[in-house]
Amino acid sequence: MPERERDRDRTDHLVDLVRRHLDEDGDVLGVYAHGSATLGGLRPYSDLDLLVVLARPTTYGQRTRLTGELLGVSGGEGRPVELIAVVRDEVRPWRYPPRREYLYGEWLRDAYERGAVPEPEDDPDLAPLLTMVLRADAPLYGPPPATLLAPVPRGDLRRAITAGVPELLAGLEPDTRNVLLTLARVWSTLVTGDIRSKDAAADWALGRLPASYRPPLAHARAVYLGQETEDWSGLAVRACADRLVREIRAAYGDGGPGE
After folding, report:
1. CA 216, CA 214: separation in Å to the nearest integer?
2. Is the keyword Transferase in the record (predicted)?
3. Average pLDDT over residues 85-108
């Protein structure tokens, strides 16, 4: 079976899984694709990104059972899953910071396997995510997302995407490819207002970085596209990341990330 058809089958299975665990009394209002699938197509390292909009908060038991099943279907021979749920009334009307009801992501697998259960919490990262969902307009279940979600003001989008820059930098060594690509996307979004795919954002940034800072970002892009094998030896990764952060600060203005 072609990879595209397998991804479609996996996505359909995830929608069914969400509805089975969370759709008591019609609580699942909508399920939406976002991320790479709607920004130019899935790449070799892309997650399956889904947003779920709920009518009411989940229970601890629902979150426990959903997490247990996602551990069995995410990653392995299939793609990793990033699944986020919000309660409609927590994000519409819009308020900052927005509140997240549930999060599953492979970077949290160790904690989930030890018994941790995702809890609701404020999450500024929802601002770019909801913006992507609204722009993609890709319902997998339910009505168009604009019927359930409020638009994110530009100022809150800019504030949200820069808020996580210090944490990104802290993860540079274990997650080099993703950190460099995400920094490029933050810079691109601040300057242009568009949320590009990671490889498209890297293309944009590579055209604007001085030549000496380009090789690590170019390698990150090539690995993301499956064109090269990941190997950071001999590359000035920290210098590239620091230059991207300087560009982000300049684009954001005084009081930018990490100030």
Report:
1. 6
2. yes
3. 96
Q: What is the DSSP letter of 57?
A: P
Q: Does 119 participate in catalysis according to the annotation?
A: no
Question: What is the spatial distance between Cα 86 and Cα 102, in angstroms, rounded to a whole number?
Answer: 7
| Candidates 24, 69, 82, 101; catalytic one | 82
**CA separation (Å) from 30 to 60, 101, 128, 231?**
21, 14, 18, 40
CA 49 – CA 59 distance, rounded (Å):
22
pLDDT of res. 74: 92
Name the token pair of 119.
Answer: 């809890």
> For residue 46, what pLDDT band results from cuts at 50, 70 and 90?
low
Q: What is the DSSP letter of 93?
A: S
Tokens of 218: 């170019």
60 — alpha (psi -120 to 50), left (phi > 0) or beta? Answer: alpha
233-253: b (≥16 Cβ within 10 Å) or e: eebebeebbebbbebbbebbe
Gap between the Cα atoms of 202 and 211, Å rounded: 14
Cα separations (Å) of 212 from 124, 174, 236?
A: 33, 23, 9
Measured distance CA(177)–CA(236) in Å, rounded: 13
